[in-house]
Amino acid sequence: MPSNPEPTLPEPRRPEPPTGVKARRVLRNPRIWVVPGVLVGLLSLLMSLLYLGGILDPRGDLHDLPIALVNTDRGATVAGQQQNLGEQLVTGIATAPGQGDAVSWRQLDEATAKDQLASGKIYGALQVPPEFTASVAALGGTSERPARPTVLQYTNPGVGSLGSSFAAQIGQQAVHQASLALGGKLAALPQAQGLDNAARLLISDPVAVTTTVGHPIGKRSGLGLSAFYYTLLLVLAGFFGANIIGNGVDVALGYADNEVGPWRARHPVVPISRTSTLAVKCAMSVGLSLLTSSLIMLAAVVVLDMDATHLPLLWIFSVCASSAVGLGVQAINAAFGGLGLLISMFVFIVLGLPSSGATIPLDALPSFYRFLSLFEPMRQLTDGVRSILFFDAQADAGLTRAWVWMAIGTVAALLFGFAMTRYYDRKGLHRTVPELA
């Protein structure tokens, strides 16, 4: 007998794409535009005002740029009288009219000036050498080619190329004006009347400026900007790391969907309080900062050969800095939910970058940014990294301030974050997710 044919199974049908509301209809609804439009518009406006507002006129915004004046002149006899022209030159520069409050001249001795250059407290220095008065007196002598009196100018690239450049420009202009004033006095002396035209021209502007680096830094230091970019990497690692960790924990606990391309999945909800969830995220932020800080240091110092000293201290500081940023982001996200991303971005990046004083010195920023720099994390962290990289990890070069503010920020973040989550838990505001049909 013929065998019965085996029944054939129907081929599985692919699920039809859901039909319903069209994209055109959604876009026509004005309510869907309101919240994104307001947030994106405000973000664009504020970022434009904050970033551009601090860089448009740094010379016009200069306020108390610290530059040292050092007089080591021993004095000599000029026109029959014992004089110290170096002291007169320094005093004339410090009291010259028309400077306003753009510069803060600091009359220091040589040792103090070198110490402040080495700790980043001043942006440059002008030093009158010991034989200055004697060189000036020789201009009216019998020598055919008298040595021109010289003022030494020291730059400080460790405080940033722009700040050091400002100090150098201001110093040269100040010496030039003082030289013209000194030249007028010399031209009025009786012994200057018989000089030839070349000698008169030399006397009219007698002082030259020789510029040298007062506190050198390594060649692979980005002209003093490597400290800023290294700090930026630490902040970004803490910021993005905290958000990645937060989303990953929420997915693992079932409070957020996991979408990869066209695939979407949701894990079973784990009954856990907001406080415990924050504790998990904070612990992971601290733990992974060990990895991120090590990789940043590996890339910068080993692979790219960035000039760096005090490597163990730099590593410890980097871990603590990245952890502090991560804890701050976790606390803000726990308190404000979805808005936490924008708030933490403003706190750590949008307000931090223009007020860090790294690319444009704080003394060349408007007063609003100088106010932000008193507490903004990026300024404190930049000072700490700069101290380690450029100023021999001196405590008074910004390192102590960085540690103190890092500790204050960490404690404040933990207190704020856990206070908010405990409040939500006590009020029964749990992170419940409705069951899907």
UniProtKB/TrEMBL annotation:
It comes from the Bacteria. It is a multi-pass membrane protein. Residues 1-22 are annotated as: Disordered. Residues 38-407 form the DUF3533 domain. Residues 1-10 have a biased composition (Pro residues). Belongs to the ABC-2 integral membrane protein family. It is found in: Cell membrane. It holds the Pfam family DUF3533. PANTHER family: DOXORUBICIN RESISTANCE ABC TRANSPORTER PERMEASE PROTEIN DRRB (PTHR43077:SF8), TRANSPORT PERMEASE YVFS-RELATED (PTHR43077). Its main location: membrane. This is YhgE/Pip domain-containing protein. The keyword Repressor does not apply. Keywords: Cell membrane, Membrane, Transmembrane, Transmembrane helix. The keyword Chloroplast does not apply. The chain crosses the membrane at residues 32-56, 227-245, 282-304, 310-329, 336-353, 402-421.
